[in-house]
């Protein structure tokens, strides 16, 4: 017998669903959000204690916010990538004005169906370059900064300088560099020279047009892999010890998972270096599914971990109209396991606490090593 599936959206809040929620003794609060279709009438929220303001998680659905507010957004539905870029740039400027120098921006550079390396890596890299240029342009308009975009190596730098020559020339103060600019020992230099020769790494006159005598106001690192994280650290130590540095769409959660494996940098790179970078604009979208014992047997739903500085970390549930509604927020970063638990809680799909079903679903560990090893980190900025 084939399994039936359904996708959770605003329309799931039907009479049958609400009656099922009531059997779980979860209170229903009327939503104050006017952006959703009329079928979205209720939000499922856990009971809040009198000290909920100081608790780790509190619901903010229906709460209005203003620009620059440290309160989270109720609903997030960017109409275009231009809106995403503007929001990311404003968050970045706010963090820079407060004196933060180790920063991260991470959001899907392409439509979710072909995002990251599931599609063409060239499309992924080129989209990141265009978005980085757009952010650099917006920050220059808002703050008058000069950005240096740093590529993994000289071939990538040359390719970008040729494909996006016009864009580089039209944005004031934007220069380019590569991780190959870092001074290294004689043996690595020998192998680097061989690689450059095999890559036909000859000088290109177009690269000189993106150089400047003035030092950059901040550095943007893009399209780097796990192997290049150590090179980023050396680059920052050499060129930007006190200059703001931005890790742009590197998908650090994916890169961190390779640290410590054979042929990759050690985990200490996270403890010592990556832990310093505070996410100022972050959207991590994930699809989930939940097996139930009655029809439709499999429930599919989509959620996101969201942060728009200076606001808090938020767990968002995707609605039928494509918007994301906040269901929980925290001053500190949610782990991946906590994000899923919040989504299950708001949908009324959690197993009974302490039951065998809960243990079988969650397993013995529900957090990654970089989320657990708090005591080994030199900084907690990446969690704030």
Automatic annotation (TrEMBL):
One of the Pfam families matching this protein, by short name: DUF1995
Source organism: Zostera marina
InterPro entries cross-referenced by the UniProt entry: DUF1995, LPA3
Name recorded for this polypeptide: Low PSII Accumulation 3
DUF1995 domain sequence ranges: 78-340
